[in-house]
Amino acid sequence: xxxxIEDIATKKLKSDLDLSICHTPExxxxxxxxxxxxxxxxxxxxxxxxxxxxxxxxxxxxxxxETDSSTLAETNDVLYKRLELLRKRYDSIYVNCxxxxxxxxxVLAFLRDRYALPIKIFSEDYSxxxxxxxxxxxxxxxxxxxxxxxxxxxAHDYAKxxxxxxxxxxxxxxxxxxxxxxxxxxxxxVYDSSSATEQYEIHKDLLKSMKKQIRLYESIxxxxxxLDCDRLRPGDYIIAWEPLLTGLLNRSKGRLRRVRQSQFRxxxxxxxxxxxxxxxxxxxxxxxxxxxxVWKACIDDPPHAERMLLKQKNVLAQMAIGAGLGxxxx
Length: 330
Known about the structure:
alpha/beta; D-Maltodextrin-Binding Protein, domain 2; 2 domains; 9 strands
């Protein structure tokens, strides 16, 4: 099992880096435009003014221009200056990052272990929905790395103090069908307040035309129980993201299969607490610049990033649950 989880994790790491957005200004601009279009899908379900949660692109443009137009030596010099300012400003920087986001976890681990930035990585959440709910329980990380859809659909008044500050990467998900397709009846299992909700809303007319009724579930563990106890019916669908999609396929032992042409992509982004966004000492710019620098280094040297990932044993153990290969209340 350990080698299988490592394989899933390294494949997800490669996918995150291959689908990177933040490494070029052009991809970031396109992603921001798409993110704002997706807001319209979630607006009827949100108590927040979602458009106001977005920090203007100028910050990310400036960071990109700084690193892209400089020599390696100049970039390193800027990085170390920014890191030193952050060390002086914070005794610790608390970041909540899903365990199923290995590229982001690796970047944070490099910043902590190699660059001595006082980062505390919380990676015990298996889904964006769980992260957003944790904020409601008075947990207030400096940075939140999560799915835009989870924030858009799940955030309420308690999350209004967070702003979306940098898009990181796209993530693929799709439909799984139980045993065989049945276009006349069945359920669509949708994880509540998540990217699965976003895909369902965007494809709702098609699914309804197939007489598929939505069934919301609120934990990965409850979905796994449905599968293990053989409660799904032939023709039932599950909307799942990676690595949950791959994990469920493995767990089902042939009872689930991918639905052709059902691939969907959604955004993973960095959210920052409002006080950091407004801080006049450039803390947010320093944080995002350092993150982007290491992110690009991981793109340039994937084996180095993979070695760092495989050292994160606790994250790998929790990723197994996030991939539907264990018990979870997420």
